[in-house]
Amino acid sequence: MARAESVLRADGLEKRFGALVVLDAVDFTVGCREAVGIVGPNGAGKTTLLNVLSGRNTPERGQILFAGEDVTGLDVAARCRLGIARSHQIPRPFGGMTVFENLLVAAEAGAGLRGPAATRRALETLALCGMLPRANRRAETLGLLDRKRLELARALATEPVLLLLDEIGAGLTDAEAQILVEIIAAIRAQGIAIVWIEHIVHVLVKVVGRLVCMDAGRVIADGAPDAVLRDAAVIDAYLGQAAHAASHG
Amino acid sequence: MIFLNQCLQGIFLGAYYALIACSLSFLFGVMRIINLAHGSLAVLAAFLLFVLADRYGLSPWLGLVLVIPVMAALGFLLQILVLERSLKGGLLVPLLSTFGLAIVIDNLLFQGFGADTRSLAPYIGDLSFASWSLSDDITVGQLDVIILAAAVALLGGLQLFLARTRLGRTIRATAEAPEIVGLIGIDARAVYALSTALAMALATVAGAFLALRATFNPYSGGMQLLFAFEAVVIGGFGSLWGTLIGGILLGVAQNLGAFVNPHGFLIAGHGFFLAILIARLYLGPRLARLRLARLRPRRPRPHAARPA
Asked: Inter-chain contact A77–B186, Cβ cutoff 8 Å?
């Protein structure tokens, strides 16, 4: 049994692509209503961890408990219906459908809502993400910021307990990223647990209460953001041996 | 007046083409598959209806109630056993596998029923020839009117179903991006299997009307597929209303061809189809703009989404 206060618990996750070990005995826990940031250099295994948690990739070893239930064998769709939603780095809206329809179908399929309840969920989510003025635009006509907001809103419309975000800020200006941060903070205030991968660390620490740093498929630091960012292993992973040597020299 | 009658009969014939094209158009819209077994599957349904009528005296209308679920179940199996695998193999494999399926069905039907030509017309009383005379030159067959009504109801109903219902939206989302609908909790495999079942139900209706208005034999499927394909292409792949219009244009072109010359029926139809294809090739972008302007009215309308 998982501890009552954790919504997600992954133990000993291992994922290989051929001979390459991308996740190496990763333990990862997310508490109820907790927001966790994941940082790490490219190739650290961050996105793969999200893929394994969302059900897109199957781990070779390890177990994933969601709300106390073993979900290791479930696919993406089944996990989504249980309450694990995910947004991708590159938004993929249903281009020929309107923004409103994108959310409506998510509320219907992901949250299992019907009729007025589904409509209400879609509209609430649109309002939260500031997309109401775009409700009747076809999704393929949106610009990047709106696509990102739609990607986030569509995941949110499935009524998740846990939201997995993959570099949602990538490619945005600081001002645009700020808009997203405010939306994500509002989502967090609703009590939805969040796991957020982001390269732009100063954006990340505005929302998350805990930071996890990965390198070469392992978790190398886990704790309060300040402590993790000061951690020698983290600095090492980010800046490499040269900087490490320089700081000692 | 004879010219007018030819046009009118062309519209009725075209409605039949739209009816047989409905399943093909829907399946392409959802799964990007051109189902070359469509005609043969429709003929298979026609034979099932024929057996029910001939051996058990069941009216074709009642027979449909039995045959539609059977064909839908067959569609479900077809998706899981054949199409799902072949879809993974690129563009050519679904074409080849459905083409192979067509040959198998045709020859199994030949094995079982021989080469005799059959029709369901004897089993629907005088409906097969009853007509209304509008003037000396213009008569309207009652069955033709039923076919036109069925075509409008089926294609229009399908369009409404896709636009307005929960399952319709699920199908559209899956058609847009099958690899990511899992993210919102949709099982794309189930949606595909359901869509193929629906397409087979539509093919059954097509087979029924083929058998009611004309004759058929085990090798009739190819010609039906050809007309259905032409109707879909003329109307624009992936558009259901387009298919209705495409079918009617094809029917009118064929009848006007026959009006000019008794042998002109097929030539005019195929010629019209080719002319549209070539026009698309050369005027493609301009035609597309024309279509977009017509089908997609002014957007956006802010705040127009209302809670139900």
From this structure: yes
Residue of A167, A102, A174, A173 lying closest to A137 (CA atoms): A102
Spatial CB neighbours of A205, under 8 Å, sequence gap ≥ 6: A37, A211, A225, A229
Residue A84: per-residue pLDDT:
96
CA pair distance A228, A39, nearest whole angstrom: 10
DSSP 8-class letter at A57: S
What is the pLDDT averaged over residues B234-253?
91
Strand order across the A20-31 sheet: A20-31, A6-17, A61-66, A69-70
Work out the burial of residue A8: count CB atoms within 10 Å of its CB; fewer than 13 is exposed, 13-18 middle, 19 or more buried: buried
User: End-to-end distance of chain A based on CA atoms, in angstroms?
Assistant: 49
CB contact, 8 Å: A75 with chain B?
Answer: yes
Q: Is residue A145 part of a domain?
A: yes
Scan residues 160-179 of A and list those with Cβ closer than 8 Å to B.
Answer: none
pLDDT at B2: 82
Residue A12 lies in a domain: no
Domain that holds residue A117: 93-159
Q: Mean pLDDT, to the nearest integer, of B186-204?
A: 96
Q: Provide the β-strand partners of residue A221.
A: A213
**CA pair distance B45, B39, nearest whole angstrom:** 10
Of B180, B185, B308, the CB nearest to A109: B185
What CATH architecture does domain B2-294 belong to?
Answer: Orthogonal Bundle (1.10)
Mean pLDDT of chain A: 91
Antiparallel, parallel or unpaired: β A20-31 and A6-17? antiparallel
User: A134 to chain B, minimum CA–CA distance in Å?
Assistant: 7
Listed by start position, the domains of chain B span 2-294
ipTM score assigned to the predicted complex = 0.88
- Average of per-residue pLDDT across B77-84: 92
Closest CA to A111 of A67, A159, A153: A159
From the CA of A88, how many Å to the nearest CA of chain B? 10
Q: How far apart are CA A47 and CA A228, in angstroms?
A: 19
Q: Does A84 touch chain B (CB under 8 A)?
A: no
Whether B297 contacts chain A with CB within 8 A: no
Residue A144 located in a structural domain: yes
The kind and range of the H/E element at A69 are strand A69-70
Residue A203 lies in a domain: no
- Which of the four pLDDT bands, split at 50, 70 and 90, describes residue B296? very low
Does the distance separating the beta carbons of A137 and B183 come in below 8 Å? Answer: no
Examine the pLDDT at A5 and tell me if it is beyond 80. Answer: no
Q: State the pTM of this model.
A: 0.87
- pLDDT number for residue B19: 95
B295 to chain A, closest Cα gap in Å: 13
The total of structural domains in chain A comes to 1
Count the neighbouring beta carbons within 10 Å of the beta carbon of residue B264: 17
